Amino acid sequence: MKELTLNDFRKRAEGGGLYRSLDELARDDDFIAAVEREFPQQALPLERGVDRRDFVKLMSSSLALAGLAACNRPAEKIVPYVSQPESLIPGRPLYFATALALGGVGAGVLVESHMGRPTKIEGNPDHPSSLGGSDAMMQAAILGLYDPDRAQVVRHLGEIATWSAFLAALQPVLKDAKSNGAGLRLLTQTITSPTLGAQIQQLLAAYPGMEWHQWEAVSRDNVREGLRMAFGGYTNAVYHFDKANVVVSLDSDFLAAGPGHLRYARDFTSRRKVRHGQTASMNRLYSFDCGASSTGSLADHRWPVRPSEIEGLARALPAAIMKDLEANRGASIVIAGDDQPPIVHTVVMALNQALGNIGSTITITDPVEVAPVNQLESLRQLVTDINAGAVKALVMLGGNPVYDAPADFNFHHALTKVPFRAQLSPYYDETSMLVHWHVPEVHALEGWSDVRGHDGTISIVQPLIAPLYNGRSPHEVVGAMIGGLDQSPYDSVRAYWFAKGANEQSWRKWLHDGQIAGSALPARQVAIAPLPPAGEGPRSGGEGLQLHIRPDPNIHDGRFANNGWLQELPKPQTKICWENVALISPKTANDIGYDDEKRSALVNERSTVRADVTYRGRKVRLPLWVMPGHPDGVLTVYLGYGRTYGGKVATPEVGVNIYPVRFSDAMSGGAGAEIALVGGEDAYPVACTQEHQSINPKDMYGQEREIIRAGTFAEYQRDPHLGHKEHHGDESMYPPHVYKNHAWAMVIDTSVCTGCNGCVIACQAENNIAIVGKTEVHRERELHWLRIDRYFRGEPSNPEVFHQPVPCMQCENAPCEPVCPVEATSHSDDGLNDMTYNRCVGTRYCSNNCPYKVRRFNFFHYADYDTPALKPMRNPDVTIRTRGVMEKCTYCVQRVNEAKIEAEKRGGNQRVRDGEVTTACAQACPTEAIVFGDMNDKTSRVAALKGEPAHYALLAELNTRPRTTYLGTIRNPNPEIKGTS
Amino acid sequence: MAQIFHRSANTLSRVTIFGAVFIVAFVLWVIGGIVRSPLATDQGIEREQPVPFSHQHHVAGLGIDCRYCHTSVERSSFAGIPPTQTCMNCHSQIWTSADMLGPVRASFATGKPLEWSRVHRLPDFVHFNHSIHVYKGIGCASCHGRIDKMALTYQAAPLTMAWCLDCHRNPEKYVRPRNQVFNMAYVPVNQAKLGPELVREYQVQKLTSCSTCHY
Predict the structure, then answer these.
(1) Which residues lie below 8 Å from residue A845, measured CB to CB, with a gap of 6+?
(2) Are the Cβ atoms of A92 and B129 closer than 8 angstroms?
(3) Which of A874, A894, A901, A963 to mutate to test the interface with B (most CBs of B within 10 A)?
(4) A120: number of Cβ within 10 Å
(5) How far is CA B18 from CA A243, A470, B11, B22, in A?
(6) Measured between CB atoms, does A739 come within 8 Å of chain B?
(7) pTM of the full predicted structure?
């Protein structure tokens, strides 16, 4: 292979073409060959080969089965109810409104329940924190519920015990605390639940010497403290992106993470959906990005900057941006990232105040937390007290501090000094190994509670199912400590709200609506404190390589590490799954002195080299990954991996634990990291899906294909076709299809796709899609029906990023259909490319002939047929595929059929009305980028979008007439700013 | 040297070679017959049930409507198997001490559901919706046979794909007026005339796309 230097990359990128990865940029010919070889490693078997003994066993069992097949099938049981619940119609799902929280802050959801089994989660359209959208973590909560690796029994020193034994063991501790006062400590995560807050206050009143600590590894301490400095007390900032013409993000990923991000993404993108003749203006986003964030990938102007540079930028934004902000006083937002130190948040709030944004685009309310504290200091206090011998008993409600506490706290050493330690948590994890008593915690879909949304809106959390694994709720543990042994969480929550004036009628309405209407926290009058002078920030300057620690976009702080769906989900920007890597920029890769030989390994999207990252004398060994657009001199790493206990998926050897290099005075890293290549190793395989099943970027004549259509808003206003005219003929050898009834179609607005992956997990949950594991992903055998392709354009140092979700195109002239020898894939009357699993014999001709590469093949028996706990999780309306079968996106045909049946049963008008049926991906999308509907219905949203001038079909020149089409990406750069620097 | 094979071996080999074609065809015919036979389709087989429930007695004898027990047949894909409560609506009043009903009373007393054996079991990969068939004027008896004459319930139809497609291709042969759907004894007067009329009136479609049933 030819060796390439950084300049070669630059030169190739200057051509203006698209590239998915540096690999593609580097290796033209090799890359094309790899793309053309769709299943490059198809000959490889699963890890464990079949030896002769297994072969004989298999043969004999199949012979036995062959014998059985001739007999009558054994009777299948039907088990009806003894007394059927009211309102339940067997075979039809019910929906219940509840809320799911991350970091204590909730978002409303609707959960689909099939005869008592929750199977699918959707956003609650009425809840202000969701508006119907949902993200990957919310969607994957359904797998978290059924996860058979969850803790299932109360344990005492690892031995199976009982809840009553735990309560009995608690009594002397409580008695001691009552008589002696001090010594009893409670450690919780962030709590917004009013009921639990009141219970803890009651507990504190009952034990005056007791202290309450809070700790969450991915906390909002910086935001809390920054706002406190700005406004003189703990407050909460709620942003209104729909009212902002100009947004400046200082390392904030408000579109993809943090409280209210679903709402923020919807509001923000509502100003970016360009519709011909309707859209007079667009908003504008400037992003200073310290890593590779979704927000940065959507920005009109993005600059990669070192984390230490943000404070300086906050104090003195570039003149062109300030001018733009000044021109939009009261209609702009400057927002700082959660990882930035408090001073940045203070400065940014002062700037917003000066710009007149507070009160118009930003509302300041009381905090949503029950008791906001500086969690880092709270945990530090706990550790100090333990080390001083002042803690006699520690009860932990949730959390895994042994794994995720700052490295310098030495929490696990401290913990072992506490004479009585108990933990309530969903998994038997690293902390559970060191406690006397471990109590399994209920899942959010199993227990009663309440929670506040990002703006303070309260939702009652109602269970969908009784605890599967003997879980206990924090309400029960705190209730038991207070002394109310017989009070169920339901009683606690209900009693709290009835005491607040609820009645049966309002209670039922709250449960039905999924929120308490009007419970959002009111805007608060605030006065801004004088701005502290520059240079007081905890981080200044920052020479050398900076370590930049981020929560993982999929598994957060590690709490979702045992969720296979989230583990196998390609991360939004890097497309890497089952792993965390160290992200560096192309220039840094150059600077840290890799010779060309090694770099060619680095830019390979299938494997990389590993490096030892040393920070403050501690070392972690991570695979290196060169990320275009990453700031120079920064090393971004994600938390949450390298778990040692906590489930079969999370352990062992899934990624690397970053917490050992996370220190309390550098929670998001800092300067002074060193990096050293690990020598003498073979290339380290990384499961990066970006180049799996890729569309060939060049046509058969070697011409660049138009995969992404993009332009600026100014260009759009001059020429809404963005310089393109549909000129493709409709000639076909086959007779045209006639769609008399429905013609299902989908339009995806790439302008507003943040690449958040909510659709991918929604599809996985809806369609019972199996996971395959890292080794098989590396062999390009992942089964996701919907992938989000990521494209770069421009210089690798700071390219433009495009996200393009690619489901099945449901072509009208489908190349897959004529090549199937057994007619397993055929054209439906509505224009869907049907996939009939029981006919499929696995020739894979269809996939070979698909130019979009959207078909997935079950090389092995990936679906888990055996684990009893996972059986009730599956969507009963969708077949579980077996080995040797091709599968692909069906446009959620089960939903389409259901809607058609319901529409026909209405009588009269037989048609499904627009909006009555939508696919799982479109339903989940927080920004409503995906629109699904009936193209034959001229009044439908999808028909209107198909008429947009910026509308285009992928690879239209092939005349496949795809039903899934796209709207071009339109950005709104500031004409006064040239280039990106 | 003498011939090893007698002259008649020639005839024998010819017969064998040509006969093989017929033998293969015969074997395939037999296999084809077996997979369509009740041996494979379970057609006509009575299953052992926890209680020997007689549709004949309840439907023909007492005149109970199908929907009294199969409550969701008009609303859902699944017709519904009655909860024990439904049995006890009557059997808490009549036959309260019949031995035959012991399991029903036990279920009601203990809260442990009855476990019935499924009689109509569709093959895997097939989805079927009762409600739309009932709505479009397909009678219960069209698929389930004369349930009112079955002392013990069995599967009247083969439930093969060919059997489904017979109606999906020619619904006019089987469609009946909506008010006759639950009438077990319905006999069409002039199906050749009535069928196409009803197909038009009910807008019955000939749905033969794979994804109509397979997904």
Answers:
(1) A819, A820, A821
(2) no
(3) A901
(4) 22
(5) 85, 70, 11, 7
(6) no
(7) 0.91
- ipTM (interface predicted TM): 0.90
Look at residue A611 and tell me whether its pLDDT is greater than 50.
yes
- On chain A, the residues whose CB falls within 8 A of the CB of B104 are none
The single residue listed with the structure tokens 């794979």 is: B210
Closest residue of chain A to B38, computed from CA coordinates: A72
Q: How far is A894 from chain B (nearest CA, A)?
A: 7
Backbone angles phi, psi at B140, to 5 degrees: -55, -45
Is the pLDDT at A180 greater than 80? The verdict is no
Q: Do B75 and A84 touch (CB under 8 A)?
A: no
| Sole residue written with tokens 């093959």 | B123
Are A726 and A949 within 8 A, CB to CB? no
The yes-or-no verdict on residue A710 having pLDDT over 70 is yes
User: What sign results for the dihedral spanned by CA atoms A875, A878, A882, A884?
Assistant: negative
DSSP 8-state secondary structure symbol assigned to residue A868: G
Residues of chain B in contact with residue A904, where contact means CB-CB under 8 angstroms, are 132, 135-136, 203
Q: Chain B closest CA to A694's CA: distance in Å?
A: 26
Q: Please tell me which of the candidates A89, A92, A834 has its beta carbon nearest to residue B210.
A: A834
Spatial CA neighbour of A24 closest among A696, A633, A658, A495: A696
Q: Is A893 on the interface with B (CB under 8 A)?
A: yes
The mean pLDDT of A741-759, rounded to a whole number, is 94
**Does any CB of chain B come closer than 8 Å to the CB of residue A74?**
no
Mean pLDDT of A175-186: 86
As a whole number of angstroms, the distance between CA B114 and CA B53 comes to 12
Residues 6+ apart with CB under 8 A from A340: A222, A250, A251, A307, A310, A311, A668
Residue with tokens 């009594």: A171
Radius of gyration of chain B measured on its C-alpha atoms: 25
| Distance between CA atoms of residues A84 and A90, nearest Å | 9
Chain B interface includes A614 (CB < 8 A): no
Instruction: Please give the pLDDT value at position B124.
Output: 81
Structure tokens at B136: 């479009």
Of B80, B81, B121, the CB nearest to A76: B121
| Cα–Cα distance for residue pair B177/B180, rounded to 1 Å | 5
Residue A904, chain B, CB below 8 Å: the answer is yes
Q: Which residues of B touch A70 (CB under 8 A)?
A: 34, 39
> Checking DSSP bridges between strand A18-19 and strand A787-793, what pairing results, if any?
antiparallel
Residue type, A412: H
Inter-chain contact B81–A894, Cβ cutoff 8 Å? Answer: no
Pairing assessment for the beta strands A211-214 and A184-188 based on DSSP bridges: parallel
Kindly report, residue by residue over A277-291, the tens digit of the pLDDT.
888 899 999 999 999
| CB neighbour list of residue A236: distance below 8 Å, 6 or more residues apart | A227, A364, A365, A366, A367, A368, A456, A521
Name the stretches of chain B with pLDDT < 50: none
pLDDT band, very low/low/confident/very high, at A48 (cuts 50, 70, 90): very low
Q: What is the pLDDT of residues A504-555, one digit of tens each?
A: 999 999 999 999 999 999 998 888 877 777 654 444 445 679 999 999 999 9
Beta bridge partners of A111: A96, A121
Residues of chain B contacting A890 with CB distance shorter than 8 Å = 211, 215
Q: How far B132 CA sits from the closest chain A CA (Å)?
A: 6
- pLDDT attached to residue B43: 87
In angstroms, the separation between the Cα of residue A782 and the nearest Cα of chain B is: 20
> Tens of pLDDT along A852-904?
999 999 999 999 888 899 999 999 999 999 999 999 999 999 999 999 999 99
Rounded CA gap, A70 and A64, in Å?
Answer: 11
Cα A579 from Cα A577, distance rounded (Å): 5
